[in-house]
Amino acid sequence: MAFAVRVGCLLLSSMAALSAQTRPLAAADVVKLPSQPPLAKIAYGPAPQQYAELRLPAGPGPFPVVVVIHGGCYGDYAAADYMAHLASALVKEGWATWNLEYRREHEPGGGWPGTFLDVGNGVDALRDAAGHYPLDLDRTVALGHSAGGQLALWLAARRRLPRSSELYADRPLPLKGVLSLAGIVDMRAFAEYGRGPCGERHLRVVGGTPAQQPARYALVSPAELLPLGVPQVLVWGADDRIVPESLFLDYERRARAAGDPVEVIVLPHAGHHDLNSAAAPGWPKIVAAIRRLLA
Question: What are 74-107's pLDDT values in tens digits?
């Protein structure tokens, strides 16, 4: 009962915060949305950024797991606290959440290849966590926002990386599916589209432009790693001014041609950051998409 009251207060507070907005949410608005503290903060490496926040529903479990990955253009624009509200809201649906932090391009050890290795190692650390917490790793999906959407899709593609690659992992944790919220599904195309600080961070995490680092782009861009071999749902807000819709439409065409099951959901009147609010009108569609991936 106490858990239900806490969740109800979470959603009511979130709705009040959203209704006060007369414009699309900004990143600074999202981090102010209410959240519950994690049950545990679990390190997967020695750096202070190498950790994940674990949240669990009430009950004995084992629980399906939603890996939650923040974006922020791979830089200081966002961190794990940006996804705490979403991770808390997903627990209400009966899912464990694994809110992943990683070294970003501006931090020691981040950039190439550290940022990508961190995300892979951070997800694989779920195997150790499952020895201590009731987690059903056979039902694990990845959810990422913006740059985190690219990282979530890339997690599903890691099994296709050559053994000679700097990013190779021997036994990457299998995923049931991926949900990408306004994700950068084509790294090469976004490098040409990106503007301002976000575009600059995008180039820095890979170490240069596609012309300068073609092999690196081929190793991390979901569009170049198709087929991923798992169902994918791409969610985009019609008022998004950061990631263009053309990326999703082209990726959907290419993914289906490669044999992947892929779905695109366009949320009207939603901006880039609105996708991370449990009070936004599109939230039920996001929850329903995760249910389909876990089914």
Answer: 988 888 999 999 999 999 999 999 999 999 999 9
The 10s digit of each residue's pLDDT in 201-232 is: 888 999 999 999 999 999 999 999 999 999 99
Render pLDDT for 137-189 as a digit per residue (tens, 0 to 9): 999 999 999 999 999 999 999 999 999 999 999 999 999 999 999 999 999 99
- In contact, 126 and 42? CB cutoff 8 Å: no
Measured in degrees and rounded to the nearest 5, phi and psi for residue 287 equal: -65, -45
**For residue 15, which amino acid is it?**
M
What interhelical angle do 283-294 and 84-91 show, nearest 10?
A: 60
Instruction: Give the residue from 254, 263, 187 showing the smallest Cα distance to 232.
Output: 263
Both tokens of 186, joined, read 């084509």
Residue 274: domain span: 2-294
CATH number at residue 56: 3.40.50.1820
How many structural domains are present in the chain?
1
Neighbours of 23 (CB within 10 A): 8
How many other C-beta atoms are found inside a 10 Å radius of the C-beta of residue 192? 10
User: Do residues 157 and 228 touch, judged by C-beta distance below 8 A?
Assistant: yes
Quote the tokens at residue 254: 């290419």
| Pair 70, 83: CB distance under 8 Å | yes
Q: Which residues of 117-145 are buried (b: 16+ CB within 10 A; e: fewer)?
A: bbbbbbbbbbeebbeebebebebbbbbbb
Q: How far is CA 4 from the centre of its chain?
A: 26
Could you tell me the pTM of the whole model?
Answer: 0.91
Helix, strand, coil share (%) of the chain residues, nearest 5 = 40, 15, 45
Nearest to 184 by CA among 212, 159, 220, 209: 220
Report d(CA 227, CA 225) in Å as an integer: 6
Q: Of how many residues is the chain composed? A: 295
